[in-house]
Amino acid sequence: MLFNKKKKEAKKEEKEKQKQFEEKSREISEQLARAERDLKEKEPVLEKEIVAPVSEKEPEGFFSKFRKGISKTKRMLVGGLMDLAVEDPIDDDFLDDLEDSLLAADLGANTTAKVIEIIEKQADKKEIESQSQAVNLVKDTISTILDKGNQDLPLAESGPTVYLFVGVNGVGKTTSIGKIAAQYKNAGKKVLVAAGDTFRAAAIEQLDEWCKRAGVDIVKKDINSDPSATMYEAARKAIDENYDILLCDTSGRLHTKKNLMDELYKMQKVLKKIIPAAPHASLLVLDANTGQNAIMQTREFSAHIGLDGLIVTKLDGTAKGGVIIGIVNEFDIMVYYVGIGEGINDLQPFSARLFAESLFEQA
Ligand SMILES: Nc1nc2c(ncn2[C@@H]2O[C@H](COP(=O)(O)OP(=O)(O)OP(=O)(O)O)[C@@H](O)[C@H]2O)c(=O)[nH]1
Ligand SMILES: [Mg+2]
């Protein structure tokens, strides 16, 4: 008993130390980033690279922004694992703690069970013996789950490429469309956006605002008009006026789930009538904060309208980013983008390798 208590206290102390260490490391990396920025500003003008002027404040580096975005998830997942990484042998207590840690990071029951099974099998075969070896195997397993190869969205063979954005209300559909529109526009594409959420005047205004910000065109109709009519008009315009990309916004709030799914299905059909291969991707937008609910949403939308990919938003504000690992494991589906803030530059193509590496790199 006494021994157990001491062991628990020692573990608690170790956890506390690890937490302090992580805090300190974060502080140091923030200081380093600040120092790097200061240094850049002080560089003589002639030695600076000549870059195109940017309208908003200078965007942070791609990687550092991503790392910052997933820092809460990292602390939740890797912090928990690091507490377990000692040289003791793998026993039932350890496996219980490991399970708790993976569930806390929102990997979900199925994915957690899969990881634990892999650890147990290798431990039985004596391929791994210590708890720290088990933690290393967890890292490798997660990296393997995430690595799905090619990350590019499907493109039309000719004519406009059409993407339909779906998802429950408030997940970030409209915002993500605004950010993606800006990216395509900056890449020199001719971009059209369809305001398919006709249920609220504010939804149309919000999308209009994003289109102005991104400098792209919009097709919008009256509030309460049939969203499929907006899709029809937008698809026609995209063909007639040689747009490269058509991004279609949809509503997340209908009276019932069935209404919503029927409406989305109808929109897909109308788009197909005019552009047979459209939508080239139906993309489900998920809010990472919803954790396990995101898995349910993926299941529902996938069953009712079919999905070609995911966008996971609000990674910046959550410790539940581990849900990405669960979704990628459970569904044969790609995550194409992740949202890491509310600004126009805060959407990045998802790289499984970068996600896994950033999660497990030492601070
Ligand atoms: N922090 C953060 N906020 C985000 C991100 N993406 C979207 N948001 C915010 O989430 C809120 C909802 O975003 P919307 O784009 O309106 O969501 P929606 O899915 O279009 O919602 P409905 O039209 O109501 O169905 C807004 O306040 C956005 O600024 C993100 O990646 N990070
Ligand atoms: Mg919206």
Explain the overall architecture.
With about 375 residues, the protein is of the alpha/beta class. Among the domains are: about 1-55; about 160-360, Rossmann fold, CATH 3.40.50.300. The protein is about 55% helix and about 10% strand. The protein has 13 helices and 8 strands. It has helices at about 1-40, 60-70, 70-85, 90-105, 110-125, 130-145, 175-185, 200-215, 225-240, 255-275, 290-305, 325-330, 350-360; strands spanning about 160-165, 190-195, 215-220, 245-250, 280-285, 310-315, 335-340, 345-350. It has an 8-stranded mixed beta sheet, sandwiched between helices. β2, α8 (about 200-215) and β3 (about 215-220) form a beta-alpha-beta unit. α3 runs antiparallel to α4 (about 90-105), α4 (about 90-105) packs antiparallel against α5 and α6 (about 130-145) runs antiparallel to α13. The longest helix is centred in the N-terminal third of the chain and has 41 residues, at about 1-40. The chain is elongated. It starts with a helix and ends with a helix. The model is unreliable at about 40-60 (pLDDT under 50). The structure holds guanosine-5'-triphosphate and magnesium ion. Magnesium ion binds near residues 174, 197 and 203.
